[in-house]
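agent> Task received from the user: take the single chain below, predict its 3D structure, and emit structure tokens. No templates, no multimer pairing.
agent> Plan: (1) validate residues, (2) run structure prediction, (3) serialize to tokens, (4) report one or two observations.
agent> Step 1 OK, no nonstandard residues flagged.
tool_call: predict_structure(input=
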Amino acid sequence: MQRFTRPLFGLNFARRLWRLTRLYWRSPDAVKGGLLLALAIGLEFGTVYGTFELADAQRRIYDALQDRVASDFFAGVGLFAGIVLLFVLVSTYRIYVRQALEIRWRSWLTGHLLEQWISPHACCQMELLHAKADNPDQRIAEDARNYVASALGLSLSLLSAIATLVSFAGLLWSLSGDWPLRLGGTQFHVPGFMMWVAIAYALVASWITHRIGRRLVPINFDRLRFEADFRFGLVRFRENAEAVGLADGEERERLGARERFTRVISNWWHLIRAQRNLTLFTTGIGQLNSAVPLLVAAPGYFLGQLTLGRVAQTGIAYGQVSGALVWVVNAYQEIAQWRASIERLLTFMDAIESTRERVEQPGGVRVEPGDGGALRLHDLHLDLPSGRALLEGDDAAVAPGEHVVVVGPSGAGQTTLLRAIAGHWPFGHGRIEVPRGARSMFLSQQPYLPIATLRAAVSYPAPEGSFPDARIREVLRTFELDELIARLDETDHWEKRLSTGEQQRLAFARVLLHQPDWVFLDDATGALDEETEARLYAILAERLPKASVVSIAHRPAVERYHTRRWTLVPHREGPAELRAA
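)
tool_result: status=success, residues=581
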């Protein structure tokens, strides 16, 4: 089971973060994203400037109160109100622009990850190779969202903290530069005393926060994994509820779901305890720190050496400077969650990349286009992903228009042979020559039906609307699916609504719609009675007379619908042998 083992921060983390971040900022959308980022940065600076001006306005108000000058007081209130209005406007659009950029960045990153994962050599090959990337659906949906949101939130808030520090550090230094400090009976001055207090507070608080909160990263990494495992188990049960019921497996499924949820709860307790410890420290020291400027300034104020306005302004400046210096303390929990999301995205990308390298390494099964219109196998040897030999054979060919049946005992490698022809099985060596430009369709025993309208399900993989409704109704009648004609606009989970036999007939209806040159059938009539099966093969021969058909069959009756036979002969020791007749 995959666990988080990398150091929390450091040079290696910076490299991995840059590897993930540069994907978007080197993309075609980076120009528009850059404009939004520049605007977001400008608005961040605007909020910092507004905070600075608000502090000065408050100083004027407090000084006017202390001096009992009503005109100065109301002037200060008016200035304060005007600054507040502008501050609210800038602050609101600061959030809006950040979210607009977040949408663009997430949209591009999600599209990039989907393109990498939903590809001929990624998803299915990752399953075959047992790649270490659990719950890729969650990584694409949730981890990508968390990464982008926190990347913008944390980077812009850090930038704001730096700007705040630069803006208020000089003010705090000058305000506390000549404060009278007493130690026993001795009075002395420390230039920029409050600035040094803020720096000391930040160093101590950041160090203790990291010591307490560093466990949050691996805990969050596990939280995402356990939550995804629990949800996936529930979805899998829903998808197979009927089969579970027929097997009387409800109790086993309940136990499995409870076991997965127990891991969620156990991890949750670890998380809230770690958050409790961190919150106790950060909240406690934060509240104490807010009183520091008042406690330090009180002697000077009571001696008449400091005005009330100056004390208030110093308190605001100290709060801004210390808040900026302890940015890590305030953001630590979000950093921990962000770090976990980054690691899950990067390990997912690593798994895709390693799978692609494994699939594309030299010496594997090569599928190449050839001239002449025939399908040819040249010195083909197929292995299992573990390296164990599965199937070998001499040269074999299927001419255009031929119907060839592949027979042999279960487990001899029939399905693997079709996968290799489709280009989805690189394990082994040899060459497969496929007709250049030919259109092919592969039908399995369990067809894939998208959750969409029936029109889209019949048209798949072509987009909905690719075929006229009249044509769709015709092919449905051809395969005795008349009761579905009135449901073309209905959206449903068709794998749950149709029997396996109806689904297989629907798959044959797709073949007539697409009119392929080559049809590969992997026990695609296994759920049908022999009479219906014979009718389907007769329809293919009649309606697609020039199409080549390659079938895998386990029933002897299927052989009569083909002109040639390939036989897979297993051996007790070693791989099965392909014999073409």
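agent> Step 4: summary for the user.
The first helix runs from residue 11 to 25.
agent> Done.
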